[in-house]
Amino acid sequence: MNALPLQPAPANPTAAQPGEPSAGPVQVWIVDDHDRLRGLMADALQRHGGVVCTREFDGPNALLSALASRLGPDVILLDVQMGELNGLDALPAIRSLARDTRVLMLTTCYDQEWHRRALDSGASDYLLKTYPIERLVESIRTCRQQHPAPRRAVRNRISHPRSHAAPAAPAAPETAAEPSPFLRWLRSFARN
User: Fold this and answer.
1) 63 with 94: CB under 8 angstroms?
2) How many structural domains compose the chain?
3) What tens digit of pLDDT does each residue of 138-160 get?
């Protein structure tokens, strides 16, 4: 599995010390075994100010290699289900290599046991890929500020696999009249 570079991270003259959130844009790495999904997600995130997707990986092994050789980003978006090694199994190793990096688990279908396991293994949040991109950006920014939602609130956020209820906090307003291409593409998986 290979790491796929996107763009160099912008210079950050006000870089924070380890364990503190950086002062510049939120640095995000995406780990998902679907090439097209990674690209769409990276493009969608790049359009939101303050979030910079600097690397993509097609699996946990490539991510673990990168983390072993350099500092991690502010946030890693980690797919739950992947071919070689799933995100849940990789999470403890990721947390040990990148203690100051927040991990958001992403999934296409909700499973209560995976949800519990992800949070117990150190994930900051567990989100459905079908949620609006604004919800993902909100969670990324919250995690970056080192203020993850309390576990009880996170556990209660997703109550049913088909539920797309608004989060407990007010959601960001929709910026477009129709869903983004990324969201339409994700919804096509839910119908299949």
Assistant:
1) yes
2) 1
3) 999 988 875 443 443 444 444 33
